[in-house]
Amino acid sequence: MKVQYKPKRNLLGTIFQVEILQGMALTLRKLFSPPITRQYPDEKPPMYAGFRGQHALVRDPVTQDSKCIGCMRCVTVCPSRCIRIRCQQDAKGKQKVESYSIEVLRCVFCGFCVEVCPVGAVTMTELFEYASYDRESLLFDKETLLKNWDRFLEESAHDENYVNPFWRPRGVPEASLAASQRMKVPADWTIEGQFIGTSLRQPQQNGAITHTEADHA
Ligand code: SF4
Ligand code: SF4
Questions:
Q1: CB of 69 sitting under 6 A from ligand 2
Q2: What is the pLDDT of residues 129-147, one digit of tens each?
């Protein structure tokens, strides 16, 4: 192994302290260039489509409660088994969600729960600050998840119709999607616009992209 020694200083370099002058010149240059750091927390970073932030339960504007109908699809699909729901039937036999919680420390942020929800009741927001002094506060119960939704609307430019197109089921025709997942999605997020992975794409002769059986599985 070749050992890299410090280059020998010459006499002039020692007399005039060239390294100090070089350092000061660099400082002077950077003094007049724009800053590359961000003044966090006053200045928040920009968020991009598909950002996997804190979960939230979407608040129904009419009932002011969660839109969740207790179908249990998110519980079934969650690979981390970190969603817990307790339901009860009311006097009319209607399913009522009593409690809903997500254990954030076990979540792997796959987004399956959002993708599978038929009524768009659970979503992943752009809130990213998880710092906490205890584990209990990272067990998001129903109230916390509803508050996350309120905070998300308050702190972002989105309104209550927010649908993150990134979490729409991929390769599913528009008409087959739940109504909540069809709402107000920009044109560039149609099926072709979604990222589906190159292995599932088959280029046609005219250069267009078609979908394989696997897309519809
Ligand atoms: S994002 Fe994935 S791991 Fe996290 S709660 Fe949803 S389904 Fe479970
Ligand atoms: S999939 Fe949606 S509606 Fe069904 S239990 Fe989960 S959050 Fe509620």
A1: yes
A2: 998 999 999 999 999 999 9
